[in-house]
Amino acid sequence: MEKPMALILQGGGALGAFEYGVVTALVEEGWSPRAVTGVSIGAVNAAAIAGAKDGDIAASLHRIWQAITLPAAPLLPAAVQANLSLLGNPNFWRSRTDYWNAPNWNSWCTTAPMLKTLAAHLDFEQLNDPAHMRFGVTATSLHTGGQTTFSNYTAREAHLKTDRHRAVRAQLTPSHIVASGSLPPGFPATRIDGCDYWDGGLFSNTPIDSLLNLLEPEEIESLPIFVVDLFPTDGQPSPANLQEVQTRAIALQYENRFWAEYGGSGGLHGFLAMLEKLEAATAGSDVTAMPAFHWLMRLRALKNLHVIASSPAAAGGDHDFSAGGVQERYQAGRAAARQYVARMSQRPALRAA
C-alpha cells in the first residue's frame, strides 16, 4: 500500500547523490510523493521525481545521476578522480573558452549542458501537472535579494508574497531548474521573465516555505514531510587545514536553520504547542480571517517533519561527481533512509536520523 509523503530536498552539489539514495529507498519502501520542493541539486532531484517518465521515480533519478556522473578512470587515484569535475562536467556544465572576452565574464562556466540534460531525460508535461504531483523550486532574485518559488501549484490559503519571498505559479522549464542551482561565481545567473536569478540556497537551503505553499489545509495535520539534511554541523572537530576550513564554512552557510527559526527557547515543540493554543483561543474571532493567521496555522505542518541526515561531508565532497564518490553517497542515502523508516514507529518526528 502506498504511503503519501512530501519531500524537501536541499542543495549541495554532488552531495545530492545522498538524496538520490534516500528517495530511491523511500519509494521502494512504499512511500509516494504528493508534493516535492528542492533547491539547487535538490531542484534537479525534485524535477527528476515530479518529471519521472512513466512515473518511475527510481529510474528517473538513476538516469539523471548517470548523466552527470563522470566515467570511472581506474588508472587515477580516487582523490584525483574526486576533483576532475573542477575541469568540467559534460552533461552539467562546461568551462568558458571565450578568453578574449574575459574582462566581461560574470561566471567561470556555462550551464547550457544541464538545460539539454534536463530536457532529454524528464517529462516536463507531467512535471507541470499538479494532479500528478505538486512541484516547486526556489531561486534567489538578484532584483529583490529575496527568495522566489516557481511551482506548478499554489494551495488554498497559501502565502504568496512577502518582502523577502514570492511564490509564482509558472509553466516550469529546464531554465527554472537551472536557475535554482545557478551558484556564483562558477555558474551565471539565469534569466527568467526579465529577472536574473542565482542559486536558491544563497537565501535558504531548506525551502520549507516553498513546500508549505503546496499543501492543502487538510494535509497540514498529518502528511509526513521528509527533509534530507546534507549539512549536519554539530559535534565535529575544528578544521585542521585550509580544505577542511572551506568545507566547514560551506556547511555552516547551507546547514538547516529551521530549528532556530521557531519557538525561541521553547524550541519547535514549544512553538507548535503555542499554535494549538492560539487556534483554540481565537476560534470564531476576526483574527482567523487575517492572512498572517492562516500562515501561522500552515506552520502546524512542521510537526510532521522527519529529518534524514547524512554524515558530515568530506572535504571537497560537494564537487566529487566521480563514479566512486556518487555511488558511495547513493548507498549511504539508501542505508540512512532504510534505518530511519525501520525506526519510525518508535521515534517521533522532528529529529534527524
Automatic annotation (TrEMBL):
Domain PNPLA, residue spans: 7-212
Presence of the UniProt keyword Translocase in the record: no
Motif annotated as DGA/G, chain positions: 199-201
Extent of motif GXSXG: 38-42
Gene3D superfamilies for this protein: Cytosolic phospholipase A2 catalytic domain
Motif (GXGXXG): 11-16
Leader peptide range in chain numbering: none
PROSITE patterns, per the entry: PNPLA
Pfam families: Patatin (PF01734)
UniProt keywords, alphabetically: Hydrolase, Lipid degradation, Lipid metabolism
Residue positions of the active site: 40 (nucleophile), 199 (proton acceptor)
Protein name, UniProt field: Phospholipase
Species whose genome carries this gene: Pseudoduganella buxea
Lineage, top ranks: Bacteria, Pseudomonadati, Pseudomonadota, Betaproteobacteria, Burkholderiales
